[in-house]
Write a structure and sequence with these properties.
ATPase that binds to both the 70S ribosome and the 50S ribosomal subunit in a nucleotide-independent manner. The protein is of the alpha/beta class. It has 14 helices and 12 strands. The structure holds adenosine-5'-triphosphate and magnesium ion. The site of adenosine-5'-triphosphate has 25 residues, from helix 1 and helix 8.
Length: 365
Amino acid sequence: MGFKMGIVGMPNVGKSTLFNALTRTAAAQAANFPFCTIEPNVGEVAVPDARLDKLAEIAKSKSIIPTRMTFVDIAGLVKGASKGEGLGNQFLANIRETDAIAHVLRCFEDGDVTHVDGRVDPVADAETIETELMLADLESIEKRLQNLVRKVKGGDKDAVQQVRLLEQAKAALEDGKPARVVEVDDEDRKAWKMLQLLTTKPVLYVCNVGEAEAAEGNAHSAKVAEMAAAQGNSHVIISAQIEEEISQLDDDEAQMFLEEMGLDEAGLDRLIKAGYELLNLETYFTVGPKEARAWTIRQGTTAPKAAGVIHGDFEKGFIRAETIAYDDFVTLGGEQAAKEAGKMRAEGKGYIVKDGDVLHFLFNT
Ligand SMILES: Nc1ncnc2c1ncn2[C@@H]1O[C@H](COP(=O)(O)OP(=O)(O)OP(=O)(O)O)[C@@H](O)[C@H]1O
Ligand SMILES: [Mg+2]
């Protein structure tokens, strides 16, 4: 599967700089001119997790394989994008394909870096982008409703459900709200997601502040924090420029640099973790002498589905999952000790995997 975060925002706010820092590459061209990025840049990023290192240390695993998340650096959006302004609406499709949005907001003051609207105002920028996404959703809803008329007349149940959900989304949007405010019942959840509306995607605001402000933020990021809280969304404060510099250092150097800057943790780590939370993701582990590895699942995933993340055959032939909770594994000092202490459980098909579980799957081939 793999989960995808789209990096979205106005032109020239630091999206590609952030993407390069995340992927530790210079894959995306980042430069001081608007619409620098046209084609999306896609990269995989390791999800930092100190528990994995701990497990590997205990099991003396030869290799450590973190789980990964995909980031997509998308072209800048401007007012009127939904109507074809700027680079137009072609890349709204790039946003459609993501699971969540990291919305980068320019919070740094730097007279040399152009702002397309000639001022630094992240709250106004956030509204501009949200409005474009809302307009794009309204337009696609209208089209879809028209296309569904015939099917509904023919009594197509799925079409009836889609129309009902589209009407709900439309009502919210016409009320000036993103479609994510609509409360959806469990039985509608899948169909709702299939609509792929842009404003149903969860959002995380990334306040891109100046170099000296990475620890505390600034007046701009404070305003974003207020806006995010009012919406029930989260935000992280990052200096994309610093993160890019840190990403080029080795681990020890990076640690020293962070300390000098008064930061406990790289901003990128906070961002990736926040993205993980935003998507309701959890991690389970497989641990042995060969490798310690982390795997990503959605909260509430059953053991066979979790096994399926490793391989489809594991899911099909699933028998049971030998399960040790992370804390038991660590406090008791490994698999054997946990087993002897009676802390290894045999869990069946109905088991809901918990964050941090150390699993060993038994399956038929
Ligand atoms: N925190 C920051 N402080 C100062 N300058 C920054 C910061 N973050 C990015 N920049 C600068 O802003 C400029 C634009 O950055 P970048 O190319 O990453 O923007 P972008 O959002 O990808 O733009 P586009 O939408 O045009 O692709 C670059 O010159 C970059 O060095
Ligand atoms: Mg760019």
